[in-house]
Specification:
Strand content: under 5%
Number of strands: 0
Structural class: mainly alpha
Radius of gyration: 23 Å
């Protein structure tokens, strides 16, 4: 963005940016708590708002300027979201803001982002009790692993955990054994197991992978990206532990 000429272009239509020669200079001013930067954030918000200039790059520039505040929100809400979720939410708030938000734009945008990330959004389904591994195995629900085709006909090869486990007659029982072993030796915890089981159950009910992640995210009040990252981290731990598991059951 620095070499794109955007800043100069914005300055021609938004006088509140005139005090700084570039976005990087404005960032330095923000770190020094230069009071002019409050007007810069307001000006960029007006440029980025759909009811203003509707410039996506300007909305992104707001998130860049508010980096310190974004980091604080992410730390406060570390149990429900990640920093990418906060950045994306700030961007969305800029797009939906009134162009006349004024010099309190920074406080307003960060507060709105925090509020949105702290609770399920409007229209989300109600939270439900997490499906436990024991409940799924005791009721003999099928958690079929392997390839899966979504509504667009795409093969979903990473639907399963991509684990190096031997072929067995009952893949559900084998998966349960693996997860129980992983929990007992400290590879993953019960919460991580519950998330995997919940995702697999949703897909087994006919949902495509991304739709399952979205639905589970809504149940937990977090973004789909957060669910995907948590799943990927857990799956990576299981893949790394697969040789130990195979040795243990040999």
């Amino acid at each position: 963005m620095e070499g794109s000429g955007k800043w100069t272009e914005w300055q021609q239509v938004e006088p509140r940016l005139a005090g700084f020669a570039s976005l990087e200079e404005a960032r330095e001013g923000w770190r020094r708590r230069d009071k002019r930067c409050y007007q810069v954030v307001a000006g960029l918000t007006a440029l980025g708002s759909r009811r203003g200039g509707d410039d996506d790059d300007a909305a992104l520039a707001v998130a860049v300027l508010l980096e310190d505040g974004v980091n604080r929100v992410a730390m406060t809400l570390a149990d429900v979201c990640e920093i990418d979720d906060v950045n994306a939410t700030v961007w969305e708030e800029v797009k939906g803001a009134e162009p006349q938000v004024g010099c309190h734009a920074a406080t307003y945008l960060l507060r709105r982002a925090r509020q949105r990330l702290s609770r399920p959004a409007a229209g989300m389904v109600s939270r439900i009790d997490t499906t436990s591994l024991d409940a799924r195995t005791e009721t003999n629900n099928s958690l079929v692993l392997g390839s899966h085709t979504d509504g667009a006909g795409r093969s979903d090869q990473d639907r399963d955990l991509i684990l190096a486990v031997p072929d067995v007659e009952d893949p559900v029982e084998d998966l349960a054994d693996l997860l129980i072993w992983a929990r007992e030796v400290g590879v993953i915890d019960t919460e991580q197991i519950d998330l995997l089981v919940e995702l697999l159950a949703a897909e087994n009910d006919g949902l495509a992978r991304e739709e399952a992640q979205r639905v589970v995210g809504e149940r937990h009040g977090v973004a789909m990206r957060t669910i995907r990252r948590r799943r990927d981290r857990t799956a990576a731990r299981l893949r790394d532990a697969a040789p130990r598991y195979l040795a243990a059951i040999a």
